[in-house]
Amino acid sequence: MHTVYMVLGGLAALAAALLLGRAFGGMAVLPLIAKVFIGLWLLVALGNLWLGVSHGYTVMQELPFLVVVFGVPAAAAALVWWKLS
User: Fold this and answer.
1) 3-state secondary structure of 6
2) Which of 77, 48, 41 has the alpha carbon at shortest distance from 65?
3) 62/67 Cα distance (integer angstroms)
4) b/e string for 19-36 if b means 16 or more Cβ within 10 A?
C-alpha cells in the first residue's frame, strides 16, 4: 500500500507543481517544471529506497518498487515535457 501512496503522492506533487507554475509563470514554464520535477522525484524515490533498506529489506528487494515509485510520476512528467515543448 505504501507504493500506491508514493505513486499517488508523486502524481499529486507533479499536478501541484504544474498548477503553481501555470499560475505564476504561464504555459512557457511548464516544460522546465516537468524537467526539474523528474530530478527532484528521483531524489524522493531514492530516499524511499533507503527507507526500505534501513527497515531490513535488501536493495534487490526494493529495486522493483523504486522503478514503480520513480517511473510512473516521472513518465507523467516526461509526457508533459514532451507535449508542451
Assistant:
1) helix
2) 48
3) 9
4) eebeeeeeeeebbebbee
CA–CA dist 60, 58 (Å, integer): 5
pTM of the entire predicted model: 0.94
Q: State pLDDT tens for residues 24-53.
A: 999 999 999 999 999 999 999 999 999 999
What is the average per-residue pLDDT within 48-67? 98
In this predicted structure, what is the pLDDT of residue 1?
A: 95
Q: Taking residues 12-20, what's their average pLDDT?
A: 98
> How far lies 84's CA from each of 21, 63, 67, 73, 79, in Å?
13, 31, 25, 17, 8
CA 5 to chain centre: 12
Helices (H), 1-85: 2-25, 30-54, 59-84
